[in-house]
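The material for today's practical consists of a large collection of protein records. There is nothing in a record beyond a sequence line and a structure line. As an example, a complete record with its sequence and its structure tokens follows:
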Amino acid sequence: VQLVESGGGLVQAGASLRLSCSVSGRAISRYASAWFRQAPGKEREFVAAISWTGIESYRDSLRGRFTISKDNSKNTVDLQMNSLEPEDTAVYYCAMNSRRFSSGTIYASDYEFWGQGTRVTVSS
């Protein structure tokens, strides 16, 4: 199973970015997926998740600005990020749950497969 993120970059505060995670080797239609992020000097934290049925969940502080979605036909999971703030600067990771027909949990330990990450830098 491979997860490859793309779409990161350097943007100014207030801008939008759309991250994409391309998954190979496992059908996302049967597994939950999620996005996590890790800022410099901080621990990895949950951003958003989507269950195998498409139910979304978000970190409370990001709800309303970030939107997770998936395309089962393309086997991709996207993260739309709007009104970006300098505090959103981090490496963003895509992850896939280890259990079939799983819900989107907030715990990194529930996710077996991870991408290499894509860097997002938001300047003020």
